[in-house]
Amino acid sequence: MTDGRGTAPSWSRAEAFLHGRGAARMPHPGGTLLEHLGRVRDLLAEWGADPSTQIAGLCHATYGTDGFDESLLPVTERAVLAEVIGDRAEALVYLYASCDRGVVYPQLGGVEPVVFRDRFTGTEHAPEEADLRAFMEITAANELDVMAHNAELAARHGAQLHRLFTRSGDLLSRAAQEAGDRQLGQYASVPSGPPVRITGIDHVVLTVADVERTVAFYQRVLGMQPVSFGQGRRALTFGSSKINLHEAGREPLPRAARPTPGSADVCLVTELPQKQVLDHLAACGVPVEEGPVPRTGATGPITSTYVRDPDGNLIEISTYDTSAAEPCD
What we know:
Layout (H helix, E strand, L loop, with lengths): L10 H10 L6 E2 L2 E2 H14 L4 H8 L19 H8 L1 H12 L2 H4 L11 E2 L6 E2 L3 H20 L2 H17 L6 H11 L18 E6 L2 H12 L2 E5 L3 E6 L2 E7 L17 E5 L4 H11 L5 E7 L4 E8 L5 E7 L9
Parallel strand pairs: 5-8, 9-12
Antiparallel strand pairs: 1-2, 3-4, 6-7, 7-8, 10-11, 11-12
């Protein structure tokens, strides 16, 4: 999306459109939806947003949002809104409305590119930086106005929103950042409850090119047991742990930011002496990458032999012992 496409934003036409669609009769924190939309527009103007972003902020709830189910216009009639506010502003409205927040919000401020999931169609794409910045400005203006007019929502979501805006600071204008800090900073205190204490790893996920090829390798070479669960998903169990398998290009959500076959480096523990490990690997025709070599495991010295699985993941097969240890790779 770029500036200059379609008709220029028209404030009077946009306001008439919102009136005609019932926004002035729809309840919303702080009065009516129309009053909320006007305040969002005013915040964006105060922060120096461009006209297309301002008018998109005014109309951002036209198709409903992931946090507000009511809509003023079906998404099948996008051309109607584009005729009123222009192509770029309408595209920003759709970007905001279609955002699957559960997928997108965790990526903001930590993953590049940010991949949007369209909650209407299920498709994914990476918006251009200018559009992502406009999306974040509208998000900040919308949420800050809602929090300002509903103390219960502010108490419930203020801390989470403050963290979102803080880690996404590079995508927000300085004015928006400062407004977020002023309004939500009070919720940024450290939680008074006990910290989360992790006691172990239940399972890890491997992204693989061929699920059944991977199952065959880990069952034959490492003695793991294949299992099926969910809707045809596959996994490998061993001891009290499990490896879930994702097929590359068909990974279920949520998923890692950059799932890639061959990117894992995993240490597995066996009770077998390393001599028997080597004999078994030779019998299976699996070449040894390195080892046996001394390493340091989670609870003490180990001796390790390294191999690779069919996707090139580095697999460290280790036995705990009392030999001198070196830092683990």
